[in-house]
């Protein structure tokens, strides 16, 4: 008669619904959440990996191109819409795997109308390119990543002379 | 305004090189801005003679500048109305340059050779020298003839690495006259100049005089008086206007002191940073093309923080590329391909009607973003890295749940990370309170927005019931200031730690090499490695400081 449904925004409380109804994506969270209301991290990573592979093959791709490729291939059983792929491409940009740029209609962007948003993978195989992201100057020393830097003073309890992070860093 | 740790770092540099007394005077100027001699004496509680000597040292080494503000005097230094008082201002940027001498030497020696480099080293060590002093020094060190020395000096001046020193006590007009003049000619809002910038703008000789050196064998006179020498017995005394007029006339006739031109050297280092940034993002070929563009457009650049280089044609760029023997194998098409890649978004090179110009602002911002993201990733983790990139690109307030959705992270973890970043000053936070009924609105409301019959109130105080949401944002300007202050703090810490290590091991350092055995040798080797690591970290960190402070 009734079934329990998960509300991703309020997992602490139990929610019930008649069996003949389907819960909306506002309750279930949509394609990115599993039946228990948890983020389906594995599925998301798979979709990200596939999208990245496609973009690397094409060198430059628009959202529509990526959507079309997956629709025709039928790789995913889940019903992924355009906004799902937009979210995935957005996540790849935040991961620094791809760049979001506007086409200037020239060179490798020749096939894409000028001004259209497209995605370009970083070419880590290029000769002379860095294999791993560079660690900045601050990040390569203890103070740059120290959680106590605001309490650090020359003569205080936390100081460069007594700092344990410095001690470890200078162990040869 | 110099940050707290910027001042501490600068004072530490001065202490190391000139001692505690000079550092005390320098700190007084850095913390209080421009002061007269009497004001410095009062605040430092040192004798006038000591303060005067400290000021002479700072001026000699270009770390301070004297000037006269012609305006009515009031307050603690009240004197006769209409009298001009000599004031002193610390030059924070020039103090920072003192750790960059090895980089400057590298630039000069690579371009002009060893003998010019040696002459330049003397100018860095002594701050400023007359031609006679330069010749005497070269003669004593390397037995160079006067003609050779003057030739080398001429090369350095021609390349703009050396300049004629600024006027010792320029007359600085009031700010109102300056601002109005600039506002009239410019339709774009212009940031007002700081006092330091105004003083140096007036003190600098004209472009012709600044880089005009005429070799003359008889130029070096033993007893020639020079008004461009740092003021000695006249430091701190009030100068009457008619005295200044006669001094100005004399200045025209007398030789000037010469010093390193930090502006040109900083420009070269900025170019180097741009080339390195492009090399990492693209490849060696793109870096070569950019380097050639910088070389070709160098003469037209008039300031360090230029936004764009002058436009260059493809032919000019190609000619510049192949000038270097190493690049003879690069074809015209290869150069064009590199330019097309650099012109693709993000556009580091702008194209306009078959000409190309470098967008320095874009390259600098890309390098700065990389540095900040590196810190965020290492300090706060991967989730914070994604959050930061999202908010930095968005440039507006975003709600916690929305952020969690965009980065595909759990809401609890997102919230925790946001708070950590906010506590360290990397994010701004605002509380949005949703109130359904007007009559329960709290009195202290920041602003209103009516949307779908609900009144949205944004406030920074406690919640008054109803739904409340936390909004987050990256304020780029404030963030850069925070990062720069942390960099100064880190640089100071590196110096202090090095001093501590040397102090802990001074017995081992004092041992003769043949007596260092067993544990002593191990300690000595460790100390050598510590010194190398800290020095190289300081150099790398200084590059980052330049990126945020000077470029």
From TrEMBL, chain A:
Keyword Transcription: yes
Alphabetized UniProt keyword annotations: Nucleus, Transcription
InterPro entries per the UniProt record, alphabetical: RNA_pol_Rpc34, RNA_pol_Rpc34-like
GO BP, one annotated term: transcription by RNA polymerase III
GO cellular component: RNA polymerase III complex
Keyword Transcription listed: yes
Main location group: nucleus
Localisation per UniProt entry: Nucleus
UniProt protein name: RNA polymerase III subunit C6
Organism this protein belongs to: Linum tenue
UniProtKB/TrEMBL annotation, chain B:
Annotated region (Disordered), positions in chain: 219-239
GO CC terms, sorted: RNA polymerase III complex
InterPro entries: POLR3C_WHD, RNA_pol_III_RPC82-rel_HTH, RNA_pol_III_Rpc82_C, RPC3, WH-like_DNA-bd_sf
Annotated RNA polymerase III Rpc82 C -terminal domain residues: 154-366
Boundaries of every RNA polymerase III subunit RPC82-related helix-turn-helix domain copy: 10-67
Keywords from the UniProt entry: DNA-directed RNA polymerase, Nucleus, Transcription
Single annotated GO MF: single-stranded DNA binding
Primary localisation category: nucleus
Cell compartments where the protein resides: Nucleus
Biological process according to GO: DNA-templated transcription
Record-annotated DNA-directed RNA polymerase III subunit RPC3 winged-helix domain positions: 372-429
A Pfam family per the record: HTH_9
Biased composition (Low complexity): 219-230
Similarity comment text for this entry: Belongs to the eukaryotic RPC3/POLR3C RNA polymerase subunit family.
PANTHER family: DNA-DIRECTED RNA POLYMERASE III SUBUNIT RPC3, RNA POLYMERASE III DNA DIRECTED -RELATED
Primary role: DNA-dependent RNA polymerase catalyzes the transcription of DNA into RNA using the four ribonucleoside triphosphates as substrates. Specific core component of RNA polymerase III which synthesizes small RNAs, such as 5S rRNA and tRNAs.
Assembly and binders: Component of the RNA polymerase III (Pol III) complex consisting of 17 subunits.
The protein, known as: DNA-directed RNA polymerase III subunit RPC3
Record organism: Linum tenue
């Amino acid at each position: 008669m009734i079934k329990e449904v998960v509300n991703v925004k309020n997992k602490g409380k139990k929610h019930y619904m008649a069996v003949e109804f389907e819960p909306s994506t506002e309750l279930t969270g949509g394609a990115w959440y599993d039946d228990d209301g948890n983020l389906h991290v594995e599925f998301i990573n798979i979709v990200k990996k596939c999208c990245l592979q496609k973009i690397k093959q094409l060198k430059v791709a628009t959202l529509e191109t990526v959507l079309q490729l997956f629709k025709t291939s039928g790789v995913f059983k889940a019903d992924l819409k355009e906004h799902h792929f937009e979210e995935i491409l957005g996540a790849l940009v935040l991961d620094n795997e791809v760049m979001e740029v506007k086409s200037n209609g020239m060179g490798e962007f020749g096939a894409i109308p000028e001004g259209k948003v497209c995605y370009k993978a970083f070419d880590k195989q290029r000769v002379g390119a860095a294999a791993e992201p560079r660690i900045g100057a601050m990040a390569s020393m203890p103070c740059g990543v120290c959680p106590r830097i605001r309490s650090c003073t020359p003569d205080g309890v936390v100081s460069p002379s007594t700092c344990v992070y410095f001690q470890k860093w200078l162990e040869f | 305004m110099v940050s707290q740790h910027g001042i501490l770092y600068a004072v530490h540099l001065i202490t190391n090189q000139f001692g505690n007394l000079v550092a005390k005077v320098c700190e007084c100027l850095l913390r209080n801005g421009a002061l007269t001699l009497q004001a410095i004496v009062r605040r430092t509680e040192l004798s006038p003679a000591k303060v005067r000597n400290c000021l002479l040292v700072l001026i000699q080494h270009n770390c301070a500048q004297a000037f006269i503000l012609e305006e009515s005097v009031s307050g603690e230094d009240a004197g006769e109305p209409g009298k001009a008082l000599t004031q002193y201002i610390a030059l924070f940027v020039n103090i920072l340059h003192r750790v960059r001498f090895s980089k400057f030497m590298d630039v000069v020696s690579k371009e002009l050779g060893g003998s010019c480099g040696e002459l330049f080293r003397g100018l860095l060590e002594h701050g400023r020298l007359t031609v006679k002093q330069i010749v005497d020094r070269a003669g004593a060190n390397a037995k160079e003839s006067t003609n050779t020395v003057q030739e080398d000096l001429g090369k350095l001046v021609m390349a703009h690495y050396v300049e004629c020193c600024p006027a010792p006590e320029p007359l600085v007009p009031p700010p109102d006259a300056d601002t109005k003049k600039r506002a009239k000619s410019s339709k774009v809002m212009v940031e007002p100049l700081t006092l330091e910038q105004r003083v140096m703008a007036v003190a600098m000789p004209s472009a012709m005089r600044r880089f005009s050196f005429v070799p003359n064998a008889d130029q070096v006179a033993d007893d020639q008086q020079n008004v461009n020498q740092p003021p000695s017995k006249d430091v701190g005394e009030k100068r009457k206007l008619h005295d200044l007029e006669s001094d100005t006339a004399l200045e025209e006739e007398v030789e000037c002191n010469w010093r390193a031109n930090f502006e040109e050297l900083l420009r070269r280092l900025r170019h180097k940073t741009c080339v390195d940034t492009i090399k990492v993002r693209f490849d060696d070929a793109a870096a070569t093309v950019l380097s050639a563009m910088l070389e070709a457009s160098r003469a037209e650049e008039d300031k360090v923080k230029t936004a764009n280089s002058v436009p260059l044609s493809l032919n000019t760029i190609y000619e510049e590329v192949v000038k270097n023997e190493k690049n003879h194998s690069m074809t015209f098409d290869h150069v064009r391909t590199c330019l097309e890649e650099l012109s693709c978004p993000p556009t580091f090179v702008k194209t306009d009607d078959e000409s190309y110009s470098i967008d320095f602002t874009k390259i600098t911002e890309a390098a700065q973003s990389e540095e900040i993201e590196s810190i965020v990733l290492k300090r706060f983790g991967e989730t914070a890295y994604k959050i930061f990139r999202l908010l930095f690109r968005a440039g507006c307030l975003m709600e916690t749940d929305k952020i969690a959705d965009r980065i595909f992270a759990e809401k609890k973890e997102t919230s925790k990370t946001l708070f950590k970043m906010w506590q360290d000053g990397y994010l701004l936070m605002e509380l949005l309170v949703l109130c359904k009924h007007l009559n329960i609105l709290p009195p202290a409301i920041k602003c209103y927005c009516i949307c779908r019959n609900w009144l949205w109130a944004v406030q920074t105080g406690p919640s008054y019931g109803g739904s409340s949401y936390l909004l987050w944002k990256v304020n780029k300007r404030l963030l850069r200031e925070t990062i720069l202050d942390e960099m100064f703090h880190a640089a100071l810490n590196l110096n202090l730690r090095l001093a501590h290590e040397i102090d802990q091991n001074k017995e081992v350092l004092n041992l003769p090499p043949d007596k260092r055995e067993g544990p002593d040798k191990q300690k000595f080797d460790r100390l050598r490695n510590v010194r190398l690591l800290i020095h190289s970290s300081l150099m790398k960190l200084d590059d980052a400081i330049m990126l945020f402070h000077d470029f």
